[in-house]
# Entry
Amino acid sequence: MNERLLLRLEIDELNAGYAAALDERRFDDWPGFFLPEGLYKLQARENFDRGLPLALIALEGQGMMKDRVYGITQTIYHGPYYTRHVVGPAQVLGEGSEGRVRAQAHYAVFRTRPGDASEVYNVGRYIDEIECTPAGLKLASRLCVYDSEMVLNSLIYPI
Amino acid sequence: MNERLLLRLEIDELNAGYAAALDERRFDDWPGFFLPEGLYKLQARENFDRGLPLALIALEGQGMMKDRVYGITQTIYHGPYYTRHVVGPAQVLGEGSEGRVRAQAHYAVFRTRPGDASEVYNVGRYIDEIECTPAGLKLASRLCVYDSEMVLNSLIYPI
Amino acid sequence: MNERLLLRLEIDELNAGYAAALDERRFDDWPGFFLPEGLYKLQARENFDRGLPLALIALEGQGMMKDRVYGITQTIYHGPYYTRHVVGPAQVLGEGSEGRVRAQAHYAVFRTRPGDASEVYNVGRYIDEIECTPAGLKLASRLCVYDSEMVLNSLIYPI
# Structure
């Protein structure tokens, strides 16, 4: 079978596991989808398209991610909400640095606040560099480029 | 090829067929996606997460499903609407009881009422037990856990 | 491996590339997803279901598509917006005319206007006839059947 298609299936699996962990609020599992020195960045499309550096959040390494998880679960005061990720099939873009794979996938995240209807929360795409490790595929970096510069309230949980 | 990935592809296919049948209003085909004694349950996440039993609807076996289809097509008086399911790639979770497969997938269902714009209707995840039969994959049980306890009007058609 | 599943993976790939080209505003790439004489049609479900011919837009061949791209990028005066396609796994329906493949996929397109939140824009399904060519899969025809007869403002960019 075609190597690229097989790889894509594994990336879909990574994305499904990632989405499930977040939506089921297993936040402690989230940093484990990255390499120890992995990068997570959340950036508005407007800035991304212009090559501007400003990002809403940028976490370098699992340490910063764990700190963020501590923040969202223990210290940040915010209105509670559920998220639901629906991620489309991934697209393998080619080879990245150090033998890594470059891939992307479109996502829609829906938000549900207690007693309220579900609504569109954040849509965009994941732009990833992925490494094949003995423990499976891991994100060397995930850049979430979201379409709307207008964020409903605030983005507490990872996208 | 990896067994699990192959299985996942077949589950995606099951989900796509299921979604197409509902959205194209071929409701009579719907019970056929289940085993004769299959279970369909629609439950708010709030109750599911707390382990509470209350479900919005629970149908045990194709007989009850056919009865429900009769209801929604012949007897229930309700405002008409279209549905559109967009289901993400499935995730194989492991082995269930009796050699069945446990899997889940995130879904978003959009509703369109005549003369109105499309809107987010119901988002959540399918939690399935699936059996491989000579006639293909069949749902031994499908539990639809939806995020919003607030339902727009009422849920007439299956999710 | 099952031929049909393999084909489906390639169709998913086609759809992901198609969506990425549109959402990244690489409109000049769009006609290249079709055969030179390919057909693109955008039709409300109401008309499609009744077998009525009226379509919102119908482009026959890459020439008309290029003209449309010229229109949307150079001449049509309209409020700017981003699109984001989330397309579910495709469903191979069978063999079409001339050895082509008939397939369909459900899609949701979200719109984001500057300074505004993302919103549901157009949901429906792609009904495709696809040809295997030396340059990969190409659309002999793509019929986009959308659920809402009520279009937010106007549909400028391809779906």
Remarks:
- Strands of chain A lie at 34-44, 57-60, 82-87, 91-95, 101-112, 118-133, 136-146.
- Chain A touches chain C through 28 residues (CB under 8 Å).
- The mean pLDDT of chain A is 94.
